[in-house]
Q: What sequence folds into this?
């Protein structure tokens, strides 16, 4: 099969590779797949358990061995405890060959009905980012329609899904970004407003105009996390699913005096994935796709993600 293959940390190529079957798994003919930061980190060696060769890609849609169109849950072996994943939990694209290919092998438990209101490209954008956003908002932060919600770093896949889900639920949703045009696009999609986090006054402006937030969703951490603590209402929940800016900068006095909950989250259980799909189907949510590439043009796609230029998901479409 043809696939995006990581042969070593110096060689990421689109080439032929033998896709050996896995006993008990189902072969899916991939129609479209989506790029995640995880794929970029693996290609740079910034991920645990890397092995070679590896076909990258966690998200995908396609046809099963019966000719039925399906969407793939990238997570496998979550385990019996909904509170956290088991030690054997894994994500498609490492250690098993992933979706940046003509076909891939997945466990029957990873196969779900295709959302019929979506096309191949938009559906491929959904799995990893969608389930991460859903678990962060619903399973961890217990978001309610009456909550005021702040989504930091809008433009990334998870952040956009979190925004879309919270708006669909009926929340007043606000955003931050380092780019004014991304804030404007978020407002055009239903956000109530937004601020540029590069501004020294954005916290005071939010406090003056909005007050505070009941739920805050973040992926950056770092020194800027202290601003989110300031913006949280008493009893608020701050959930984060990444730490691209490093260790959290937290004022513990403010956390305990406000009775805040600081919640970590990553990916989601099978239950989360099923509930996420049901929510997407109920509200007819359409993922935001920034750009579409052929697999052979993967270098341009990876470069775009590295530069942070995207608003929405970067998707590969198979010919």
A:
């Amino acid at each position: 099969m043809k696939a995006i293959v990581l042969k070593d940390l110096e060689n990421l190529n689109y080439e032929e590779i033998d896709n050996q079957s896995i006993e008990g798994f189902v072969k899916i003919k991939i129609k479209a797949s989506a790029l995640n930061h995880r794929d970029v980190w693996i290609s740079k060696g910034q991920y645990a358990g890397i092995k070679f060769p590896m076909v990258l890609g966690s998200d995908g849609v396609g046809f099963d061995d019966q000719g039925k169109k399906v969407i793939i849950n990238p997570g496998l072996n979550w385990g019996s405890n909904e509170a956290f994943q088991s030690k054997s939990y894994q994500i498609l694209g490492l250690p098993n060959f992933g979706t940046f290919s003509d076909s891939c092998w997945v466990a029957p438990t990873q196969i779900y009905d295709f959302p019929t209101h979506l096309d191949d490209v938009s559906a491929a954008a959904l799995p990893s980012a969608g389930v991460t956003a859903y678990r962060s908002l619903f399973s961890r932060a217990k978001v309610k329609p009456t909550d005021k919600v702040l989504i930091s770093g809008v433009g990334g896949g998870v952040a956009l899904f979190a925004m879309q889900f919270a708006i669909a639920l009926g929340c007043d949703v606000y955003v931050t970004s380092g780019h004014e045009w991304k804030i404007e696009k978020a407002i055009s999609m239903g956000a109530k407003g937004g601020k540029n986090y590069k501004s020294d006054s954005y916290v005071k402006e939010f406090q003056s105009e909005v007050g505070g937030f009941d739920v805050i969703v973040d992926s950056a951490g770092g020194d800027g996390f202290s601003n989110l603590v300031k913006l949280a209402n008493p009893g608020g929940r701050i959930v984060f699913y990444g730490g691209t800016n490093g260790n959290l900068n937290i004022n513990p006095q403010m956390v305990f005096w406000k009775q805040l909950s600081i919640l970590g989250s990553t990916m989601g259980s099978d239950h989360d994935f099923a509930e996420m799909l049901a929510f997407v189907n109920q509200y007819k949510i359409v993922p935001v796709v920034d750009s579409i590439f052929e697999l052979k043009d993967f270098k341009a796609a990876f470069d775009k993600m590295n530069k942070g230029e995207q608003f929405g998901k970067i998707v590969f479409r198979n010919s």
About this structure: DSSP finds ten helices and 18 strands in the chain. The mean pLDDT is 96.
